[in-house]
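Before a colleague's protein record goes any further, I have to sign it off. What it holds is a sequence and that sequence's fold in C-alpha cell form. My question to you is simply how this chain folds and whether the C-alpha cells agree. Thanks in advance; the entry in question is below:
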Amino acid sequence: MFHPLRSLPRLVPLSLAFGVALAMFLACGDDDPYSPPGNGSGNTINVLATSFSPASKTISVNQTITWKFNGGPHTVTQGPSPGNPASPLFDSGSRSSGTFTFTFDTPGTYEYHCDFHFSMGMTGTITVEP
C-alpha cells in the first residue's frame, strides 16, 4: 500500500535537484532579459546565443546601427561568410558584452555574420536606402 509520508524522503532530493536545475537553466541563458528576442529597438540589434535579433534591418544613409552583445563570444563581421570579403567593411572583433556601432554612408545591402556561429545560421542583413 502506498503511504505518502514514507515516499517523502525520496521526493525531497528529487524536488531539490529539479529546482536547482530549473534555476540554472533560467539564469544561464545568453539572451538579455531586458531585451526580448525579436524586439531590437530603434537601430539596435541584439546579439543572442545563435542569432541576431532582428536579423534584418532597413535604414537610411548616414544612420548608425548598434549591435548589443548579450553573452558570447561573438563577432559582427560584414560579408556573406567568414573570410569573404578578405577585408570586411566592418568587424567588431570577438566580444561577449557591450556594444558595437557602425554608420552606413552608402546605399546598398550589407550582409553580416558571426564568425563563430556562421555554420549555425547566425547571419543578418542591413539594407541602406538613399
